[in-house]
Every structure is written in structure tokens, then in C-alpha cells.
Amino acid sequence: MKWLHPAELGYGVRQWLDQWGFGARLFLRLLGTLVPSLKRFALVRDQIFFLGNHSLAIITVSGLFVGFVLALQGYNTLQRYGSSEAVGLLVALSLVRELGPVITALLFAGRAGASLTAEIGLMRAGEQIMAMEMMAVDPLQRVLAPRFWGGFVAMPLLTAVFSAVGIGGGYLVAVPLIGIDGGSFWSQMQGGVDVWSDVGNGMVKSLVFGVAVTFIALLQGYLAQPTPEGVSSATTRTVVLASLSVLGLDFILTVMMFSI
What we know:
Elements: H1 6-31, H2 34-39, H3 41-52, H4 56-78, H5 87-125, H6 128-134, H7 139-178, H8 182-192, H9 195-222, H10 228-259
């Protein structure tokens, strides 16, 4: 077994602390770009279109099939207790509270997050970011901030689409296919889903996930080695770290919102 030399261990720890410190400073600087980004909203608008609209297909299809599965599984479970009419409530609560924000964030990390990291990494490899700095153009304001706020806005919109399509998919399975009364499906949902404690908390989750996934993608792209292997490794790290962050934050937020 090969043991690490103390100097190698110290160098690794120093690099790890340096990256965390740089990430914290970059995050605080990005938060401070809100007002300047609003003044140049066209850049943010383009990123909302790129991140949101281009992710819409996978979000819509995934939401539809998740709704299908939730209705089938919910019906089979509730039927044992004579509560099959509440399948609409089960589908809606599962989507707006938990599955909508989480699955949307995971899909967003795999599609948009990887794209952001590859884009920023290639800009570093092509020395475009260095060229901006030489021309006195701040890459944070011109490149990173519009993408950060674009992801922040796009995530809750995609989450709303996912949940709405999922509920529609649950209706298609529960009412025409299984034979549950349509009025009961919607009335149970209307009576059991609270706008603020259920839908509102789900939107708060989606905003937090949007910040986490987009920031991780931008940070990994900015720190990527300017080589094809470096960009590839950074893209892989983005998907892994963003997915784990979403799952960890989901637990923390769930405890804060629904358990306390």
C-alpha cells in the first residue's frame, strides 16, 4: 500500500481549500450582479431561452410519464384501503412537493448544466475569457452572470411545466384508462393541495435547486483545465456534484418546510 507523502497531502488540502474559497467569492460576486444584469436583461433573456426552452422537450416527456406511473402506482396502493378516488390528490402532492422540483433539477443538471460547463470550459480553452480580460471586459458580468440568473429563472418555470404535465398525465391514466370519476379526481386535488404550503414550498425548492445547479455548472466550467480531457472531466463533475447537491438540499429543505 502506497502512503501519501505529507507534502502531497498538504498540497491536496490546500488546493481543495483554495477551490472552496474561490467558489465562495465567485458566488458572492454573482449575487451582487443582480442589478447590473437587470439593466442588460437581453443577455439574461437569451440564456432563459437557451436553458429553458431547449430543456422543455425532455422536461415535458419526463413529466408525462412520471404522471402515468404515479397514477398507476397510486391507484394500486389506495385501492387496498378503499381510497382510490384520492389518486388525484396523491399525484398532485407528489409532484408539486417533491418529484416536480427534484426530477426537474436532475434533468436540468444533465442537460443544461453539462452544456453550461462545456461552453465555459471551451471558452477558457479557446482563450476567449482571457481575451475579454485583456479588452477590459469583465467575464463575470458578460458571461457568467447572465447564465447564472437565466438558470435561476428557468428552473421554477420548468418545474411548473413538469408538475402540470405530470398532473395531466395522471388524469389520462386515472380517468379514461382506470375509470375513476373525473370530478372526484379534481375535487380531491383542489381540496387537499394548499397553494402556499405545497405549491409555494415546491417553487422555493426549485429556486434553490436552480441556484445550486447553475452555480456548480459555471464554477466547474470556469475551473476546467483548458484541454479536451479537462473539459470532459469538468462536465462529468458538474452532473455528479449537481445531482448530489440537489438530493442533499432536498432533504434539508423538506425537513425545514414540512417537519418542523
